[in-house]
Amino acid sequence: MRACEICGKHTSVGHNVSHANNRTKRRWLPNLQRVHAVVGGGVKRMVVCTRCIRSGRVKKTA
Fold this sequence. Notes:
two-stranded antiparallel ribbon; two-stranded antiparallel sheet; 1 helix; about 10% helix
């Protein structure tokens, strides 16, 4: 299972519900991106969600 390495956000599950109230399984996928980030003075490739990137929790390399 892929998840954000910073906040732990991962896939959530639920149902599609039709007008007739028929239910089928579906998944909500987080918007995960592979980025090169500065971690502990070094550069590391990480899988993080876009919310962590926008909020500044991840320091991207140039």
